[in-house]
Design brief:
The protein is of the alpha/beta class. The protein contains 11 helices and 12 strands. Helix 5 links the parallel strand 2 and strand 3.
């Protein structure tokens, strides 16, 4: 029966035996993922119980949204789980980029300096900062200075250079150190919690007042600790990634110390209003429920990434990270040899989707990106990358970024479908690999 349905779905039935062999080999990695998931599930449950969530908290306010108890409890849950003094969690934050922009523009002012210590940030942040394009309201446009320090060739913090920069009296206006935890569109491993902790301790010994901010997109619930557990002052992410659990229709979050969250809240709404207003548009229930199941959903996505890593490395491709390496985001990178391979890979992920599986993908000039991008995203929530998805900039080196899967089984189907597709178009000579 399984062979027939695989065949009907365009998956090579000969992959069935291979699939089972791979799963036996990667079982120890799955065990480790389950242990982290169980801890995080208990942590989230404890936070829900601590704030005494009740059925009435799902009732929605109108107008200004004053005294929305459900909203206030939701934000308290986030602050408890992420171990911070305060939080903003709103469906009106349209994306992770928006959450990051609010965090940056809310806390940086003319004359301040921001230093990214993970190199140039993700493509969409280039326009926010002002290092690409000329948009009114970018950080550089409003008078904020910006600089960056690249990671080492091994993907580690360039500690000596960073500390020298912080000590330099010419950088007395340095107000924020920015860290992008995820790899983004680069061939590097995600930054680990241990690495973040070590660099923060060294920086704070030199300048205690400096703000450490982390872009935590794709990183929530990968570890028992979050960046804010090890000294990060401000952190932001998207609800259509890990913490939304596949249920949040949209939105973003920002967590951190109370003073910084207050500054950001004045940008979120307006000075004098801050967090006190803002409708939830009947989204409190789905955002809360998504956050509750997020540890389990994230674990499913990680398992899919591990399966993907093992399979493609076996097939002779460079993968990052390898299947048995520590992970700090849900993204699995695969380096292909040409444009044809990368387009067919993404197309096969689209064809594996429950939504829009019939859509033929074309690379396009997506707003916020510096080159054409192809995106496979047949998701229930538009743009949700905790659901099975894949994307790639059409530029050398040809790297595809595979992520998500509300269930491990769905992520696995996507991987097997992609292999079958690449066999079909002649990119993979499967018989040589048996």
């Amino acid at each position: 029966m399984l062979k027939k349905i695989y065949s009907d779905m365009g998956i090579n039935p000969s992959l069935l035996t291979f699939e089972k062999e791979v799963e036996n080999l990667i079982a120890p990695e799955f065990k480790r993922v389950n242990e982290v998931m169980q801890y995080n599930q208990l942590k989230v449950l404890k936070a829900f119980q601590a704030v005494k969530v009740g059925e009435d908290d799902f009732n929605s306010k109108t107008g200004y949204g004053f005294s929305d108890i459900g909203r206030e409890k939701l934000e308290k849950i986030y602050s408890l789980v992420f171990n911070t003094e305060d939080a903003i969690v709103r469906p009106t934050i349209v994306s992770g980029t928006h959450a990051l922009n609010l965090s940056l523009t809310g806390t940086l002012f003319p004359g301040d300096k921001m230093l990214s210590i993970t190199g140039t940030p993700y493509d969409t942040l280039e326009e926010v900062i002002g290092i690409r394009g000329d948009y009114p309201g970018s950080l550089i446009n409003i008078g904020v200075d910006y600089d960056s320090i690249e990671l080492t060739n091994n993907g580690l913090f360039n500690t000596d250079k960073i500390l020298q920069y912080v000590r330099n009296k010419k950088n007395n206006n340095l107000k924020m150190i920015y860290i992008q935890r995820s790899s983004g569109y680069s061939w590097r491993k995600a930054i680990t919690i241990k690495e973040i902790k070590e660099i923060i301790n060294k920086i704070k010994c030199i300048k205690q007042s400096i703000i450490i901010m982390v872009d935590n997109c794709y990183g929530e619930f990968l570890d028992e600790l979050e960046p804010t557990d090890v000294g990060v002052d401000l952190m932001a992410g998207s609800l259509i990634k890990n913490p939304g659990g596949g249920l949040a229709n949209g939105g973003g979050y920002i967590v951190g110390n109370k003073q910084l969250i207050n500054l950001v809240s004045q940008r979120l709404t307006s000075p004098g209003i801050g967090k006190e207003q803002g409708l939830m548009f009947n989204q409190t229930r789905s955002i809360m429920q998504g956050f509750f199941i997020a540890p389990k959903i994230v674990s499913e996505a990680i398992k899919g990434a591990i399966f993907c890593a093992y399979v493609y490395e076996y097939l002779g491709y460079s993968v990052n990270p390898k299947y048995n390496e520590a992970r700090s985001d849900i993204i699995q990178s695969i380096k292909f040899k040409n444009e044809t391979a990368i387009i067919n890979f993404c197309q096969s992920i689209q064809e594996s989707a429950p939504i829009d599986s019939y859509v033929h993908l074309e690379p396009w000039d997506m707003p916020g990106y510096s080159s054409k991008v192809i995106m496979a995203a047949g998701a229930f929530i538009q743009g949700s990358s905790i659901e099975l998805s894949a994307d790639a900039p059409i530029r050398e080196p040809y790297i595809a970024y595979f992520q998500g899967g509300l269930t491990y089984e769905h992520a696995k189907i996507g991987v097997l479908k992609s292999i079958s597709k690449l066999i079909e178009v002649g990119v993979i000579e499967w018989q040589e690999k048996i």
